């Protein structure tokens, strides 16, 4: 799960840098959406969770929330553009750096031309993030090379 220290930092960033739709790719038990939705009540949230047990728990947690959608899908195969998100959150769900770089490069190419798109990365190796073209780091907090928080904007 994403540490509350990182969640607090993300909340502070998003209070200044507004967003409308937040998508959590690999949302697990919904901790990030639960935390942020308490502060940003009028925003839309989409959580995508692959594992059925986690999905069922999270779907039930948010069943009364009209502004939160939880999907039981493999996020590497969904059409992100239909959700019109302007904030993408990842707590490193990737099996390898190669898979991550390939996925994020394809996602960025689909988002070209969109304005004010934010990417939030938790627990990625910082050197992997620096390999991504078309993103600019705007905030980071690293506890070790593999543990940290990085916030990027699409160029």
Describe the protein.
- This protein has 155 residues and is of the alpha/beta class.
- The chain contains 5 helices and 7 strands; from the N terminus they run αβαβαββαβαββ.
- The chain has a 7-stranded mixed beta sheet.
- A hairpin with a 5-residue loop joins strand 6 (135-142) and strand 7.
- The protein is globular and about 40 Å long.
- The chain starts with a helix and ends with a strand.
- The mean pLDDT is 94.
Neighbour order of strands in the largest sheet: 3-2-1-4-5-7-6
Count of extended strands: 7
Mean pLDDT, all residues? 94
Distance between the termini: 29 Å
Keywords:
alpha/beta; globular; 7 strands; seven-stranded mixed β-sheet; single chain; 155 residues
A few lines on this structure:
The protein is α/β, with parallel strands linked by helices and about 160 residues long.
């Amino acid at each position: 799960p994403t540490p509350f220290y990182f969640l607090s930092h993300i909340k502070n960033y998003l209070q200044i840098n507004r967003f409308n739709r937040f998508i959590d790719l690999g949302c697990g038990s919904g901790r990030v959406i639960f935390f942020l939705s308490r502060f940003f009540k009028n925003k839309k949230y989409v959580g995508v969770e692959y594992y059925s047990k986690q999905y069922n728990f999270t779907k039930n947690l948010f069943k009364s929330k009209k502004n939160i959608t939880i999907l039981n899908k493999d996020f590497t195969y969904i059409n992100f553009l239909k959700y019109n998100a302007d904030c993408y959150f990842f707590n490193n769900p990737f099996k390898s750096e190669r898979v991550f770089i390939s996925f994020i490069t394809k996602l960025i190419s689909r988002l070209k031309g969109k304005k004010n798109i934010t990417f939030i990365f938790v627990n990625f190796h910082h050197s992997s993030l620096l390999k991504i073209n078309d993103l600019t780091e705007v905030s980071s907090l690293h506890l070790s090379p593999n543990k940290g928080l990085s916030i990027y904007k699409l160029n």
